[in-house]
Amino acid sequence: MIRVPEVRLVGDNVTVGIYPTPEAQRMAQNLGLDLVEISPNAVPPVCKIIDYNKFLYEKKKKEKEMKAKAAHSEVKEIRFTPNTDDHDFDFKSRHAERFLKEGNKVKAYVQFKGRAIMFKERGELILLKFAERLAEIGALEGMPTMEGKRMLVIMAPKSGKKK
Known about the structure:
Elements: E1 6-10, E2 17-20, H1 21-31, E3 34-39, E4 46-50, H2 52-69, E5 75-80, H3 86-101, E6 105-111, H4 120-133, E7 138-140, E8 145-147, E9 150-157
Parallel strand pairs: 1-4, 5-6
Antiparallel strand pairs: 1-2, 3-4, 6-9, 7-9, 8-9
């Protein structure tokens, strides 16, 4: 599959240097291995004599490890009502603080039931107070918005590192 006239050959059992492509392929066949193009954009392209299936296996394994190490953040929800008391508010704020420190987003919402929908201002005040309380740890993604019978706000952690 390599269509260039000459390649730079690297590897364990080979002397490093620039070889014509057919000669490099012959060397790989003699060793019972494959000639694999590692860096096609280099001049001349860099090739390595290795077992191609093993190369694919290790590449897949590295990708899987990288994916496992990637930060997985969840959206944790905290629920308030327009009449949430100070003690409950503090308790829920501490939970949200812990969630943000762990690197998760927090979705806080005020649930309105029945005629409580008349107290939208109270709900907005609770959410703004919540955002103010967590301002050091998290950043507000937007102002409080109504979605049906809920007023919600989403906070993201300020530091990307998990503790």
